[in-house]
Write a structure and sequence with these properties.
Shape: flat
Structural class: alpha/beta
Distance between the termini: 54 Å
Length: about 325
């Protein structure tokens, strides 16, 4: 039996996650510990634990941050109300919202001023959706999954536009859009795709691997929307089994029964060291032949938040 690993590329950190994590690290170096972070900076338990060890304190809401202190907003974005709450407590804010999420916020504001009702395809309760909907809460209706697309009842007589959470399954989002278009033929589309390039590229890579894979291991946390989607996409495209793990230690011996080909990928908030640990574990089980399957090349970088760059320049750290 030939044991092999098909390693997805691209995988792991996207530009928005890299920017957010570096933002917290630079803030700690510049201002000293503690630096407060509202919500998990990115949805990955290893990243959060690593930053906590360096002096970051993660809180759920701004009222947990002592007055006058520094708070970083996570990559998922926040609503205008959160900015107002931070200002009321005289907090120094650094906004690490992914620029691709910020783009969707701009779209909400623009369509809201045009008196449109916005059907936001996304998951109820997800931080990104809460922040995006908060830009115009009286104009945004959340469409959660295909059932949501089938049952949503917009306000009669309103101009409709659809937008989406950036980390969804590309295929399922397009299915939801098709349902909405069938029900509401006049619905407008966003000026450009809302699902982020990294989410799409990681899904495309696993689509190539899945039909050949007896098992797909996705490295990522359970609250990471794009990581969970990778597990689902792997199964939809032919993988016989697919599991989500935070760490290599979670891999179970029984998963290897009858397995010749294993696909490996990681969500957009996962550092590469965790993937290397998984590959080391697979080598111990005889899976030493690793072939990289490349779906796209990524070179995008985002500048750090302007408020942080300004302080770094003043301190001679730019």
């Amino acid at each position: 039996m030939t044991k092999r690993v098909l390693l997805a590329a691209p995988r792991g950190y996207c530009a928005g996650v890299d920017r957010a994590v570096v933002t917290v690290e630079k803030a700690l170096a510049l201002y000293g510990a503690p630096v407060y972070v509202r919500k998990q900076i990115v949805h990955n338990v290893h990243v959060v634990a690593s930053l906590e060890a360096k002096g970051a304190i993660f809180v759920e809401e701004t009222d947990e941050v002592p007055e006058g202190k520094t708070v970083v907003f996570s990559a998922h974005g926040v609503s205008p109300l959160v900015h107002e709450q931070a200002a009321a407590r005289n907090l120094k804010t650094i906004d690490a919202t992914c620029p691709l999420v910020t783009k969707v916020h701009h779209e909400v504001r623009r369509f809201a001023t045009e008196d449109s009702e916005i059907l936001l395809i996304g998951h109820h309760g997800h931080e990104e959706v809460e922040g995006t909907a908060g830009e115009a809460p009286d104009r945004v209706r959340i469409v959660d999954g295909l059932d949501g697309a089938r049952t949503i009842q917009p306000t009669p007589g309103k101009n409709l536009v659809w937008l989406s959470q950036t980390t969804l399954s590309v295929d399922e989002t397009m299915e939801a859009v098709a349902i909405l278009k069938e029900r509401f033929p006049e619905i407008q589309a966003p000026p450009s795709d809302d699902i982020c390039y990294a989410t799409q590229n990681r899904q495309e890579a696993i689509k190539e691997i899945a039909p050949q894979a007896d098992l797909v291991i996705v490295v990522g946390s359970r609250n990471s929307s794009n990581s969970v989607r990778l597990v689902e996409v792997a199964l939809e495209y032919g993988a016989k089994a697919s599991h989500l793990v935070d760490y290599a230690e979670e891999i179970q011996d029984e998963w290897f029964t009858g397995v010749e080909t294993i696909g490996v990928t990681s969500g957009a908030s996962v550092p590469e060291i965790l993937v290397k640990d998984v590959l080391a574990t697979l080598r111990e089980h005889g899976f030493k032949d690793v072939q990289e399957i490349t779906a796209a090349e990524e070179s995008l970088l985002f500048a750090l938040p302007p408020e942080l760059r300004k302080d770094m320049k003043a301190a001679g750290q730019a």
